[in-house]
Amino acid sequence: MSEKNMHGRIFKKLREERGYKLKDVAGDVISTRTLTRFEADETSVSVVVFEKLLKNCDLDSVDYLIYYVKNTEIETTEFAKRMQGYIESGSSVEIVNECMKELKKSDIKFAVRLDILNFMQLIEWNGRSELFEENKRIIKEKIESTSKLGWSEIHGLINLINSASSEDYSCEYIDRVIEDCFQNIYDGNYPNSLFNGAYGMLLISSLSFLSRNGYYELVEKQCKETLINFNKLSSLYDRSKYYIDVTEILAMVYLSQNKEEGIEIANKVLKYRNTLAESINNPLYKQKRDISYEKFCEVNKTGIDFEF
């Protein structure tokens, strides 16, 4: 399903579930005929119009995004639901066995292949299996042959890059991915904000790849350009998260090269994460702060301690 041809259908489902009539939502924004065509995915509406339609349903963009996630093709496969149960019970062995069994089937859907790749990374499986390696190769070939990445392909590429080495991808390829991310991140386009967020995650994964594989000059340049671009994207969904993630990568690049400016930037990142950890009662924020601190300590070649 194309991302540009799903919003009408999703909006209609949301409107009907909330009990709003066509004429009430259309109001003086657009005609009921145009709204009907939009909901049938026969035409599109501008971002300004879409915002007004959401307002007439007593909704904002965040409400829509949450609903969008739950009701589009970005859905959990039955296989993934079963694996999630094993994740919650801590049964890593069962996950590996189930994934291997699935990969031996002759008619595996691409979505299931992506699920398998994702679950192997979630459990941090370090074993070797030709089945899993072949699965990676198939996913990689599928993505590289696709001219326009959809939601599944974007997240598949994120997973591949997260575990890739310089032998898997050249810095030239990753550099092209980064440029593609910038071209596909649009400011203030709420119907596509979910895809903007996906490209944001792909961007972070690509910058991390350059950093951990020692392409320091290139990643420093791209991090600085990314931060400048983020300053222009005031409506980018979850912009502050991506901004601090890029800043963290830049700090690690400097620390790895014994540059003292890395200490100053790292301290800012740690203070930000510590403020979140102390103000929001969620263990995930504390975990993120601690992980950032450990990563900084691991690459720090300056001999200077961090303060936050």
What does the radius of gyration come to? 22 Å
How many extended strands? Answer: 0
Strand percentage: under 5%
Average predicted confidence as pLDDT: 86
Main β-sheet description: none
Shape assignment = globular
Structural class estimated from helices and strands = mainly alpha
Quaternary status: single chain
Percentage of residues assigned to helices: 55-70%
Instruction: Give the helices and strands as they follow along the chain.
Output: HHHHHHHHHHHHHHHH
> Whole-Å distance between the termini?
46 Å
The number of helices is: 16
Unreliable residue stretches:
none
Structure description:
The chain is 69% helix and 0% strand. With 308 residues, the chain is mostly helical. The chain is globular. The longest helix is centred in the middle third of the chain and has 20 residues. The model has no long low-confidence stretch (mean pLDDT 86).
State the gist of this model.
By secondary structure, this protein is an all-alpha fold.
List keywords for this structure.
mainly alpha, 308 residues, 434 Repressor (Amino-terminal Domain)
